[in-house]
From TrEMBL, chains A, B:
Gene name tied to this protein: gadB
Keywords in alphabetical order: Decarboxylase, Lyase, Pyridoxal phosphate
Reported cofactor(s): pyridoxal 5'-phosphate
Any one GO BP annotation for this protein: carboxylic acid metabolic process
Protein name: Glutamate decarboxylase
Lyase found in the keyword field: yes
Family recorded in the similarity comment: Belongs to the group II decarboxylase family.
Cell cycle keyword on record: no
Top-level taxonomic group: Bacteria
GO cellular component: cytoplasm
Single GO MF descriptor: pyridoxal phosphate binding
NCBIfam families named in the record: NOD_PanD_pyr (TIGR03799)
One Pfam family per UniProt: Pyridoxal_deC
Annotated positions of the N6-(pyridoxal phosphate)lysine modification: K333
């Protein structure tokens, strides 16, 4: 056997034979399975390591020349990567929209990679294609509540699509506005449509100077990205002020009329069902009415808040969502599915035909290949994770999860209001709220200094690594002119207890009181 | 304890305590770990089930009301989903670009979900952000071979980016052309740029009627999708004929000049390094020259073929790739990483600033958040899978894999040429080739009938489920006028033996000879 043949034989083993049970990688796996919380608390340790220090572990762009043993590499990952990761599972990590996951996703992740299907095309996904279509149907029903006949007709129709699965809310929002743009500038007897002839020709044909999209200042940054990508220009996203944190339908009506009088066509209104920064829900039913008046697309970004629809106690908070032409949902937020499970659903099963593509060797006409109407091409089978969650939790289970989150946010708001060092800056909406350090004892609210103090505390808390809240800058009802710096928390982790919340406030108060700005201000 | 409290207590268990080792899901996991090939051959069984039958398993859009036990659901997934999936691991499944994966990815998938980092933002990814930047640097070096100083300067720079990780080649191609468009129609003293003011204003300012992109007819369908999304219009993708399967640089030069004389600006030339249909590589160095002459962006779609650069024996086949302004690479193809690992790399570390975005609560200016210059927002940490593969295989290991694939394709071509029933329709390029049933004994090549026969055999073979080749329609050197139907195979699976290849040909010959068209034609 030559050296090359021997190396090749060794390589084949990596494709066929796992190492023994005593291998480092399998030990890690076992620990993950046995007790994820324990694994993370033991291995995610270096939370106060600076980013620069972490970067030193990952600053070699040279390709390694020689192979490394799997066990050796596993140890390397533990030391350099896992130890410096963020413990998103921790009940005191409440600053972002991801949280603890149900343990069964660990096993399913392995099944997903073992099957390694490609959802772009039915030949490499087969059962996953119908499964994904069913999941999209379930999400469609969650939002639009159509009857059985509707789903019998459209769920598996090759000429229709109830939505698209994608990596996340950004792609979902871009997809929705792409459909809106292509539908508005569609083909007619004298024009071949924006899809074929482009945006400039479309605007000219229909006599529009520009296309605008109306939303609130709390609209997700991905909407601006969408405007850029779609060629509409970021400045044509008109983000209306919202000191009350929600979009004022009357202001949208006025602005829309004003624009249309100037020859600028309103292409879409985007309402938000759970803003990223404060959790507020726009008046969806009223916005739908304005969209009808302005003859434009109505999109709802419910990436984070959409899961509220599972709860019969709280679904009413999203009243009017079923009037939307399209809705963005992220299962990796309040549906407790791992990262990478975004979706857009369309009310009209014909809608996505505005962006349908075909090719010879793939996505043949009449085929049910999912890639024909989605922005992404090759994709993995993440829909399975949501499918499993929907069955294992059931609607009832999700309702319990949603309800406990909202209850917890309300209890936390009370704790903040009862605490002399803090100010609740926006009341809890869904399970999100914002607050800041602002002791009642301070003479006057010197917001500039308070901003510095809040920013410093948030950073110190993050670096200490026991807990994490995020921060943002907001105009609020009490501070409508200049944005103030606030803490932002999302109470979605079912493992977070009231004790955790008290501990977080105590830590912040302690850090604040030790800070020199505190002394200056008191 | 009320019923609701009891249910909630049960739900918490799903977040904290795995079921016992005897649970169905853990049994499945164990089987996956012990012997993936055996798991798949036992459970992926119903390969001749019709799509309609599979759809019946997934035709209920109603949300399940009540929770289901995890073990019960695991059994359901095995019966309905896994059994009807495609065995992409099988050495006789050679029709697509995915293949068997090294076993360590199963464990890593579990680690990835256990950590559940969100790469959009450093606060929820921390070590994963530097890791992803390193991986992008490694891919940049694979393509552009810059020196250590270059990477020391740019790898972790907040104001630069060497590329973007994304779900797949489609998003990578869209990202590259997005950067090209925004760079071409950039801001100057009298114009705020296409990113802010949109495409129509950009065209007007620069005095272009339209923007065109030149590629060959073998260009990936995602390029047309990109033209649509970016507002350029699908018709402005000029796909030049290529009976030799590669783009003729002189034809591009002529067409480019012709367009520019008409006031249509050539925005980009897209060369392909490994076409999806035949594996051919365009003359990249010549195309780069034409791009320089036309003052346009040069993009190379090396989604599939890029991994060839790992092999010192075959890297020369991609000569000129380092002259590209941007390159698409898919690690889930010839780098043997699970689905969902696409990338685009940019020669100029400033390039992606043309699409940079900021937001208050996220992607703050000067931050190193990866979401600031990527099309996608929230994303998972797939880069870890490629990082691990690069270390565990090393460049040497990848070279062995690439070399064995190319050798195998060449051997398969000889088998086909030696077989009286088959015709090699395109010679092997990289590890891809096409062929068809066309017995020497047949009187004249009645291509219409042969197409029907080849199509029928491909379908029957797929339905029988022992093996899988894909099919497409192609113009070739011998048949330059009307496309013919051909089989298409990718010999990337290291587990595929010559015996497997003989078996595939035998099965096809047998199916063909039993078909009524064969009798008609002989």
């Amino acid at each position: 056997m030559t050296r090359a043949e021997a190396s090749l034989a060794h390589l084949y083993k990596v494709f066929t034979k796992p190492e023994g049970n005593d291998s480092r990688l399998l030990q890690i796996e076992q620990h993950l399975s046995d007790n994820l919380a324990d694994f993370l608390s033991r291995h995610v340790v270096a939370s106060n390591t600076s980013l620069e220090d972490i970067e030193h572990h990952f600053d070699d762009a040279a390709l390694p020349e020689h192979p490394q043993f799997v066990s050796e590499h596993a140890e390397h990952l533990l030391e350099k990567l896992v130890s410096n990761s963020v413990n998103t599972y921790s009940p005191r990590f409440i600053g972002h929209m991801t949280s603890a996951l149900p343990y069964f996703h660990l096993s399913l992740a392995k099944l997903l990679v073992g099957l390694n299907q490609n959802l772009v095309k039915i030949e490499t996904s087969k059962a996953f294609t119908p499964l994904e279509r069913q999941v999209l149907g379930m999400m469609h029903q969650l939002v639009y509540e159509q009857n059985d006949e509707f789903y019998a007709q459209y769920l598996h129709s090759a000429r229709h699509s109830l939505g698209a699965f994608c990596s996340g809310g950004t792609i979902a929002n871009i997809s929705a506005l792409w459909v809106a743009r292509n539908t508005l500038l569609k083909a007619d007897t004298e024009f071949r449509g924006v899809q074929r002839d482009g945006l400039a020709a479309g605007l000219q044909h229909y006599g529009y100077k520009k296309l605008a999209v109306l939303t609130s200042q709390r609209g997700h940054y991905s909407l601006r990205k969408a405007m850029d990508v779609l060629g509409l220009g970021r400045e044509q996203l008109i983000a209306l002020p919202c000191p009350d944190q929600t979009l004022d339908a009357e202001a949208v009506r006025q602005k829309g009329r004003e624009l249309q009088e100037q020859g600028i066509k309103v292409m879409a209104i985007v309402g938000i069902a759970g803003t990223t920064e404060t959790g507020h829900v726009d008046p969806l039913a009223e916005l739908a009415e304005v969209a009808t008046e302005l003859h434009c697309h109505f999109h709802v970004d419910a990436a984070w808040g959409g899961a509220t629809l599972f709860s019969r106690n709280h679904a009413h908070l999203l009243n009017g969502i079923k009037l939307a032409d399209s809705v963005t949902l992220d299962a990796h937020k309040q549906m407790y599915v791992p990262m990478g499970a975004g979706m857009v659903v369309f009310k009209d099963p014909q809608a996505s035909n505005a962006v349908r593509h075909h090719a010879q060797y793939i996505l043949r006409e009449g085929s049910k290949d999912l890639g024909a109407t989605s922005l992404e091409g090759s994709r993995n089978g993440m829909a399975m994770m949501l499918y499993a969650s929907l069955h294992i939790f059931g609607r009832e289970g999700y309702q319990l999860l949603i309800d406990q989150s909202i209850d917890k946010a309300r209890r936390f708001a009370v704790m903040i209001e009862d605490h002399p060092d803090f100010e609740l800056t926006t009341s809890p909406h869904l399970c999100l709220l914002t607050y800041r350090i602002r002791p009642a004892a301070f003479q006057s609210p010197d917001n500039e200094k308070l901003d510095m103090l809040n920013k410093a505390v948030q950073k110190q808390q993050r670096e200490a690594g026991n807990s994490f809240v995020s921060r943002t800058r907001l105009e609020t009802k009490d501070y409508p002119e200049t944005p103030i710096t606030v803490f932002r928390v999302v109470l979605a982790n079912p493992l977070t207890t009231d004790e955790d919340l008290h501990a977080i406030l105590d830590e912040q108060a302690q850090l604040a009181r030790a800070h020199k700005i505190w002394t200056e201000l008191s």
